[in-house]
Amino acid sequence: MPPTPCPSDSMRSAAVVNEDIRDLWERSGGYLSPEDEEEYQRLLVEWAAVTGAGTRSAA
Fold this sequence. Notes:
This protein is mainly α. It has a domain at 14-50. Helix content is 56%, strand content 0%.
């Protein structure tokens, strides 16, 4: 069962999102179905937003 999406005004911690990513891979046995891939991509975007991984700092 996929996790319930969070309201846009609340953010989950990186650890929680990472746990969901790990659970997804474990449930899938290392092979993502198209639905799993869609969830994985959503989780990656959420994780990047929480960690700031998608931002670049000025040099």
